[in-house]
Write a structure and sequence with these properties.
Chain lengths: ~110, ~120
């Protein structure tokens, strides 16, 4: 049986970490090239960058990948260094909640622009 | 019972192989980036909210603490990105010989430092 808070979900986590990494590794250079093309980046050009729906969706997917990737990475660190189960679960929960809020915040930032 | 052996584990005296240095810095930079996420979202929100907030943020980022954070972030993201590509390569079976792995470890560390160096150059010239 899997132990609560344990390290026995390795394969799922490994795959999630790779998939999110690959998406970000493609998105970041593409984004930098697009932003570079709008230099000098003043306020109007910067907002214009996030105006198309395709960019909003790509950006949302990027932040989602980032949050998932960060959570899996932190989880790994907690498993390695934090051997008090209550503390480890507490931190899982704290970061999970914080990152869920970050995702909602991202939706608000992207679709709240007018 | 384990046989009694001499025990020496002073991490400050150990000389780590270069792969271990690249690996621990991959972890450290990842932890820093993970903790920076809410601050980055906050800055991103300000940058898109109004022309005044955009100007305020730009001015702050151009100051001492802002520039330091930009360089630290450039290093953390750069090294994490490159060391991450290195790990993805290992997953595909690329560069697994000792020489190749040592070379790519040096490369991730060196290019990881080159990124903030170039950023500093463009900030101060």
């Amino acid at each position: 049986m899997r132990k609560v808070g344990g390290a026995h979900r390795g394969v799922d986590m490994w795959l999630v970490q790779r998939a999110s990494a690959v998406y970000m590794a493609c998105f970041i250079p593409a984004f930098l090239v697009l932003a570079w093309g709008r230099m000098p980046l003043d306020y109007a050009a910067w907002r214009g960058l996030f105006a198309p729906l395709a960019m909003k969706l790509a950006m949302l997917l990027f932040v989602f990948s980032l949050l998932v990737h960060a959570w899996v990475g932190l989880r790994e660190i907690f498993i390695d260094y934090l051997h008090v189960l209550v503390l480890r679960l507490g931190l899982y929960f704290a970061f999970w909640t914080m990152y869920a809020a970050c995702l909602a915040w991202t939706v608000d930032i992207l679709w709240g622009m007018h | 019972m384990q046989p009694k052996r001499p025990f020496f584990l002073n991490l400050l005296v150990f000389r780590q192989p270069i792969g271990a240095v690249a690996s621990i810095l991959h972890r450290a930079s990842g932890a820093l980036l993970s903790l920076a996420v809410p601050a980055l979202l906050y800055a991103w929100m300000l940058s898109l909210r109004s022309a005044e907030d955009f100007a305020r943020l730009s001015a702050w980022l151009d100051g001492g603490p802002g520039r330091f954070l930009i360089l630290a972030g450039g290093w953390a993201l750069g090294h994490h990105f490159l060391a991450g590509l290195r790990h993805l390569g290992f997953d595909l079976g690329w560069g697994e010989t000792r020489q190749a792995a040592r070379r790519s470890a040096w490369l991730s560390l060196g290019l990881g430092l080159l990124i903030p160096a170039l950023m500093a150059l463009s900030l101060w010239t």
